[in-house]
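Homework-ish question, so no full write-ups if that breaks the rules, but can someone show me the predicted structure for this set?
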Amino acid sequence: MNDSSKIRVAIIGATAYTSREAIRWLLRHPRAQITALCSRREPQPRIEEIFPDLAGQISMRCEPIDPPAFKGRADVAFLCVPNGLAMSLAPQLLAAGLRVVDFSADYRLKEPADYEQWYDKKHTDLENLERAVYGIPEFYREKIRTAALVANPGCYPTSAALGIVPLVKAGLIDPQDVIVDSASGVSGAGREPKPEHHFPERNETFEAYKVGEHRHMVEIERTLDPYVRGRKSSVIFTPHLVPMERGILSTIYLKPVQPVSVQHVAEVFGKTYANEPFIRLRQTPPRTADVARTNFCDITARVVKGRIIVLSAIDNMVKGAAGQAIQNMNVMFGLDETTGLLG
Amino acid sequence: MNDSSKIRVAIIGATAYTSREAIRWLLRHPRAQITALCSRREPQPRIEEIFPDLAGQISMRCEPIDPPAFKGRADVAFLCVPNGLAMSLAPQLLAAGLRVVDFSADYRLKEPADYEQWYDKKHTDLENLERAVYGIPEFYREKIRTAALVANPGCYPTSAALGIVPLVKAGLIDPQDVIVDSASGVSGAGREPKPEHHFPERNETFEAYKVGEHRHMVEIERTLDPYVRGRKSSVIFTPHLVPMERGILSTIYLKPVQPVSVQHVAEVFGKTYANEPFIRLRQTPPRTADVARTNFCDITARVVKGRIIVLSAIDNMVKGAAGQAIQNMNVMFGLDETTGLLG
Amino acid sequence: MNDSSKIRVAIIGATAYTSREAIRWLLRHPRAQITALCSRREPQPRIEEIFPDLAGQISMRCEPIDPPAFKGRADVAFLCVPNGLAMSLAPQLLAAGLRVVDFSADYRLKEPADYEQWYDKKHTDLENLERAVYGIPEFYREKIRTAALVANPGCYPTSAALGIVPLVKAGLIDPQDVIVDSASGVSGAGREPKPEHHFPERNETFEAYKVGEHRHMVEIERTLDPYVRGRKSSVIFTPHLVPMERGILSTIYLKPVQPVSVQHVAEVFGKTYANEPFIRLRQTPPRTADVARTNFCDITARVVKGRIIVLSAIDNMVKGAAGQAIQNMNVMFGLDETTGLLG
Amino acid sequence: MNDSSKIRVAIIGATAYTSREAIRWLLRHPRAQITALCSRREPQPRIEEIFPDLAGQISMRCEPIDPPAFKGRADVAFLCVPNGLAMSLAPQLLAAGLRVVDFSADYRLKEPADYEQWYDKKHTDLENLERAVYGIPEFYREKIRTAALVANPGCYPTSAALGIVPLVKAGLIDPQDVIVDSASGVSGAGREPKPEHHFPERNETFEAYKVGEHRHMVEIERTLDPYVRGRKSSVIFTPHLVPMERGILSTIYLKPVQPVSVQHVAEVFGKTYANEPFIRLRQTPPRTADVARTNFCDITARVVKGRIIVLSAIDNMVKGAAGQAIQNMNVMFGLDETTGLLG
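A: Not a homework solution, just the prediction itself:
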């Protein structure tokens, strides 16, 4: 099973939706192979029993989560466990010689105070928090290359940051008057059945949730702050749920610091993303269906009555999770960034 | 709130989907009023908190299930509690002077042995079981009129019986070679969240379940048996789940005892249902959308290669549950059968 | 068929989705009856052939659109024809002695210049344009009472105005910094099949359309202008499409003129809508499913980082079209406003 | 762009849903490359404009359909044009030295009389009709290897044949008493917008269509006939539409010639498909979601009251169209059959 030319991947927490998505993409990745799947469930299940769609493509029993056991068996861990647990496992995985792409929020917020405020617990791994690199390759490619620990971004923040950062960086907009109105497919809510996601409740309805209270609001702000001089950004974030499986569309309302044309906005995006394989700048408004099951982010901009409106669409499971993790992995291991992610 | 010209209805087990549907219909019924809602939940919730869509139309706190307490406060009970519990409550409700429309399966199968076999428990109210009337008004209108206890039929059996009984009765088909292939919306699975009905699991998929093992299989047979001379019917029943809220379509394959034309089949249906307000005989195949939120059953027949194919569509929540209950109530209390159910 | 105590309704343009919805509600309205259905189709179809779900509830052949022919046969016309055609028919209907509820946009914008700019044609009935009353009963009840011609509002503007006007009226917000981010079910796009609404294209996707260009943007502004002193409002409007049949949720971002608490905002809504039967003020964010097939508008407010966020949900086919038309009709004819619309 | 180790594929009729699916799979196929896309549209569109989801993965302008022009530029043509047109193009493509996988029905029915009866036109290419091989590799692998022209099977017939043929072959069932009750996602209806597939009409409904009249009924029979001794098979086929994008589930009712156990049925399937990479025999009923976007066919069998019920699920766009075409191509060109189709 070992193939020395391949990156060996251990997926820790293999029964989540994001893990399934990672498995799917890794199965067709020409330079990676899955060498371990781990689960806290007892007894450990076979992955193809958890996800019957994977049968015939992978046949592997999950093993307990025992970081030292991966030493020499994996080059990178995809850490797909809940917030809080990740920061107790990451140091052990790093100690075992693995590089880590963490799907949780544990290493995304550089300020321990932010983490404590929004996640209701003290951060227990400040050392790695400081060294962790926020994993949007379009912005942090160089740092990701050598990072031991990459904080794989949240789905909403990915869609928002890709739509806002270029304009903040160009000094075009007021970073304190940012509204991100997003809508997501239901896979983003995870695999745990809940009354509000019971099919007859979630089908044929549209609603906002955690208005102004979602943890991704501060994460979006932190993606902007590095580009803001002298003060912090302020973002209002309203997530909504769409009765569909996957996809996020963020409709972003920005206030230019001085009047701006849509051509100029388009130019800024065009220059920023000229060589980015996963950013598609579009004339017409993006559709989540067009990015579904791809690692693309589709972006369109408009100027309406003096405000810039940026529309940014991703698949929350791909560019918003597993695809971006693989993109990060490709960068970390010196592969072409698109390996296994196009076609 | 009391209005002596109105039928007073108590809904026992008010937090089920079928109860919500009954409430909706009763709110617009000109000759009925809801006088009590009961729930086993503690503390008893307000119904408009359970079902926020009902706010502004009804404001009522549920009360504990205490049958003697309804004496003089209700004329009829809609019994919407689980199988097994219903047969312990029905006798008490009858004793308190109420007539009962039971939504559970407890009084549908006349043979205690059938009940024991399919519901894994002994029947504990044989007396009322014998007196109970199976509540398809199209077939048992006269008995329902004076019944103290009506067993409101299952959703699948309603769609199947309405499509098969006329042909069995006419001696047209072999009652031992009946295949009922049905597909239902997900509301039929109830309000309890389950992993298999979690939105991302249930959306965009189609599947059969309990193939040849569903309890409604025997109930369908028992709707046919009275019209079969000398032997019992034999039905193969395969239910499927459709990613939609409501509706059942039964595609029924029947073997004529001798060659028959589609005209003759249509004629039998035409005669049987000539004066039925809720049966719509159609030329084109029925669509569940056309019966959604109505008490109609749409029926179309075809003859293909010597077999009769009957297509029968209902709304599982209406003609398959709450609407039929109200239709039964109308019959029981001498109202026009369509009162509150048309328009 | 005539019943002198009933309002006689003619539906002009009977084959639209909004007409079907009007028919459904009128069929259960205790004080109204449909006396004519009209269509431009030739030959005129039976309505139950166009909408098979209506079979068994109404049986009526459409007739050609001939306004003088309704004289004495109808008290009110629901005018459900395209923009532009409505303003040629309304004067004739008024001349024939009918009062008119116009579902089109022809009489919604008081300024002919607005109409010309946004609808690309000159307004040809300026006299009635001036007299027409904009039909949101919550704001214009008194004028509607005696109006000969009511301009039934657009679906998006209804959801937006009900969420914004109370705050503008109270002087709480800056009417020139209003963002309305809305999402609608697909029935709002009408019954005409289009490539972008073909099921496989529209299913499982979410997207914005006509960003900053939708005609309802100006209509929303015009609902606010009467309450703004000295200047006009300025609204940015972004509609989205949700893969569901019906429902609109508007997420509205408003800038207070001075710091405001969510309690104060709630108080303003509470006072404004204290006696409104169709406005439900909620603590939790509204869900379109909760207003589906009802005439309710559910409203929730939040204050986030100094901005007011108002969430407003309606059924685009009911409070956003046919239900509001009937509510207007009830007001026009002196009935209790909720007649036929509750329960 | 040329790569001598790769199979060069021309897709004729590139704007169909099946073509898009073929493009998606070919883009990730390590041993194939698309060298031409053709369309009858004028002017010829760029494929990424027709299917914006493909942007960033392929950039190619369609060219007119000119078979001689593909000589030396393609090794195989995927012929995705309407029935009737295919039989005029296939001979030209063969003459130009290409092998052909035809997605239409033109070469599926060996008897010209069948074609004429069901497709309402005379077959005009009898020579190739005789030589064409029906492309279910699980049954006709050897012939496909050397075939110049492969008739890629219909979606329903694929799901049905894979579920029935092993039992016919084993002499287990009566080939004249076969009922195939199938349900399909809406992509099977093609890309042309039609009133009945307009989102608000197709959403939230389930219905049968072309009951006993669908052209795939005879195609299913012809997949069985070769294994029936002395007489022809007789199949009743009822297709249904499910409000989802993709997937077919066939629920197949078969009559054993003598009593049979479910174990024996499972054994027959187990032996037949022991080495088949794309057939997954399951204990639990198959779900279309589990085969979606895969080339798998999931099969489960039951015996109920003496009848065998086979449940067979595929993705109509993959194993039912483009995936099977690529599987056929792999066989035709001596590749491992799973190349580009797993993972």
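Now go work out the reasoning yourself. Hint: Chain A has a mean pLDDT of 97.
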